[in-house]
Amino acid sequence: MSRIAARFDELKRQGRGALIPFLEAWDPDQATSMALLRGMPEAGADLIEIGMPFTDPMADGPIVQAAGKRALAAGVKLADVLAMVRDFRLADAATPVVLMGYLNPILSYDPRRFCVDAAASGVDGLIIVDLPTEEADLLLPHSNANGLDLIRLVAPTTDDRRLPLVLNGSSGFIYYVAITGITGTRSATAEHLQAAIPRLRRVTDLPIAIGFGVRSPEQAGTASRIADAAVVASALIETLSADLDADGRARPGAVEKVLNQVRALAAAVRRRD
After folding, report:
1. Is the pTM of this model over 0.85?
2. Out of 3.20.20.70, 3.40.1400.10, 3.40.630.30, 1.10.443.10, which CATH number does the structure's domain 3-270 have?
């Protein structure tokens, strides 16, 4: 059983959903993002999503785009993202780690070699935002061969006829994009989520995570109870970016502010109404 499946099984036995915080690798530098990664499990992260910086992140809103630009300016490469996970695994063998990013860097790296190296580094799953189902064979054989979950995105505009096609070959969990548009710009209502998630339940037994627009502890708690997990990204990056100095370096205490925010989100996810 994969780490992702084992974690969701454990949380189901506990009767609660998961918190999945996001960080952009090397934002604003390697040391700061590594400190965040190492601190997130203790702060309440059930799974962790790491962004792979890319020059043309078409689904990212301005907050995540800025984080990617800072990381690229710091010199991050795809191999450095894998090295982060490898270093993280020296002290944490249990917390599932999912990489989220775009296809072009993986094609440049070589899909087969990337999946081999990602698995060897301790990565558990991949979310490739711009990989359409029709082109999944670029990656799926290699992810399957190396025990990596390929996590698919489902949008509000994905109709019932296309859902089975989109979900074919999916594993780990389903990432429900709660809004149409880019990340961090607005939020879905509880009423929308309560209508959307049962539609997905009818066609998959995989856990469902809600992302894009989940910002506050209240929203995270609601999302994790309607579905199986809440993904929080832009709100955490916004906290970090607000605590950078004029040269773009993290001020003392910046990491702890983000981790305190993760703690508040985790408390809301764990709260039993």
Report:
1. yes
2. 3.20.20.70
